[in-house]
Predict the 3D structure of the following.
Amino acid sequence: RNHDYMLKDDKVPSKTIPSETKHTQLVPNAASYNITLHTIAHSGKGQRVAMEASDILDRMLDRCNKYLEIKEGSSATLPPPEPTIITFNSAIHAIAKSGADGAGFMAEEIFSKMEDWKSRCNTLNSSHDGCYKGVEPNSRTLACLLDAWSNRDKVKGFSPERAESILNVAINRRRAYVKSVRGEDYDSPISSFDSQAETDHFIDDDDIVEEYVDDDFGEKESVVEEDDVGEVLKFNGETTKNGIEVDIEQQNTSCEPFLRPNTVAFNTCINAWATSGRGRMAAERTQELLSQMEAISESGELDLPDADIDNDIGNDGSTLADHSLRPNVRSYSMVM
């Protein structure tokens, strides 16, 4: 390719040809990290898998942050690639699949890093000094995050409560965003998750009954598509309910765009309760979640106006299938 570049205009003196072009740079791109994270996710279970996935993402962010620190006044070099939505989702997915005891907390940390990175990019771009754009979480991000709380061997303690609390925060943030787009009044939503859940609401191990899992539930819906690892992403610019309480930080900020929870997110929460072995309480919570999904689906309260639907679906890297919010066969099967 460099040879073609030199020959494309024989009137250009050779001294004007840069010594390095994008084709001679040897740096990993986003797909390099995505494929690595995809491989880690399928390498097994345990704390080691979760730590490896987290470390890969941290390494990628560290390279970007170091570039931003030394960029000013230095010779222009190609910036290291920033994490795409696929990168963040793959990291959370790997942590969720690991089944590590701290998977839920680690997944929440990744989610926070995504929002922190986006916030920093927005700050830099507002001063015309940014070369990165950051990414917004999408429906798959939420599903992976919830799966980290659900996808543990013999889910105990507050894991189902935590998953449901996160889902409710996401619903409230989405509801406020839709109302703001429609020009309606809305309450300031809780905008962040606090990993320090109240120990008062933990369930003692003695309260756990024998776990019952029916194979007829079928395979879990995929929260990360297998083909995503090599995609190129195009960028564009009530706390809880039913007595389930988690310590979540209240922030009084402007309402920003937020993802639309989908069927997979609800099913993941239902699965967390269905496999918790919590007897009657679990049965009541799964029924409540199912009813909530039916009501939201029928009301359309989380849907943007027709004029904004295309932007909402296309710009976050998701598809129409990701935005489905109707109970499916698996939803009812898990409840039963």
